[in-house]
């Protein structure tokens, strides 16, 4: 596992719930990793290590304490944890108005990872980004839809817009 959350489960969380949360994180990571195409050549260990370091620095701004792994050998495919944190940070960067220079599904090799690493490093040092994360979340938008049924009854349905990045704000 290349990125380890140092804080672990929230204090007081039952062990069985913590285990379920860990399993869910792993599943999400695998799905995110599937979004990133396998590179033509393995990622350079140096480039991949720099990426995980940048993820850890940006995560610190988000209130997460990650410990990145040091790579000594090239990496054939992106790890699920790295992909999961990249997806989370890509959403936050986009909401902030500074999207990553490369979409996750467009990563082909070291050049794209280097561009994303630079963007993460910039975000980690951006005081306005930290303030953005600390700002109160905007209320969720609720859209009411009316449907007229064949019998003339009007059925109202509320649809909430879910913003994944709001889950990442520091508390």
Describe this structure in words.
It is a single chain. With 171 residues, the chain is of the alpha+beta class. It has one domain. 46% of the residues lie in helices and 12% in strands. The protein has five helices and four strands. It has a two-stranded antiparallel ribbon. Strand 3 (142-148) and strand 4 (154-160) form a beta hairpin. The mean pLDDT is 80.
Task: Give the fraction of residues assigned to helices.
Answer: 40-55%
Largest sheet: 2 strands, antiparallel
**Lateral arrangement of strands in the main beta sheet:** 1-2
Rg of Cα set: 19 Å
Described by the principal axes of the CA atoms, the overall outline is globular
State the distance separating the first and last CA atoms. 26 Å
- Record field, number of beta strands: 4
Quickly count the domains.
1
- What's the number of helices? 5
Order of SSEs: EHHEHHHEE
- What structural class do you assign from the helix and strand content? alpha+beta
* Low-confidence blocks of residues: none
Mean pLDDT: 80
Strand residue content: 5-15%
Summarize the structure.
By secondary structure, this protein is an alpha+beta fold. It has five helices and four strands, in the order βααβαααββ.
Question: Could you give the topology of this structure?
Answer:
Blueprint: E1 3-5, H1 15-35, H2 45-61, E2 66-68, H3 80-96, H4 110-124, H5 127-134, E3 142-148, E4 154-160
Antiparallel strand pairs: 1-2, 3-4
Helix pairs in contact: 1-3, 2-3, 2-4
């Amino acid at each position: 596992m290349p990125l380890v959350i140092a804080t672990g489960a929230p204090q007081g969380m039952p062990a069985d719930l913590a285990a379920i949360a860990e399993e869910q994180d792993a599943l999400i990571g695998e799905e995110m990793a599937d979004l990133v195409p396998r590179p033509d050549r393995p990622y350079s260990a140096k480039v991949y290590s720099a990426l995980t370091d940048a993820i850890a620095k940006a995560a610190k701004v988000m209130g997460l304490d990650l410990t990145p792994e040091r790579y000594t050998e090239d990496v054939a495919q992106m790890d699920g944890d790295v992909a999961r944190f990249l997806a989370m940070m890509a959403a936050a960067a986009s909401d902030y108005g500074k999207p990553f220079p490369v979409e996750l599904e467009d990563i082909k090799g070291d050049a794209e990872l280097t561009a994303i690493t630079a963007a993460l490093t910039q975000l980690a040092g951006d005081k306005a980004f930290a303030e953005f994360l600390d700002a109160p979340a905007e209320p969720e938008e609720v859209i009411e839809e009316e449907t007229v049924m064949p019998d003339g009854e009007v059925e109202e349905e509320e649809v909430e817009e879910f913003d994944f990045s709001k889950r990442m704000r520091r508390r």
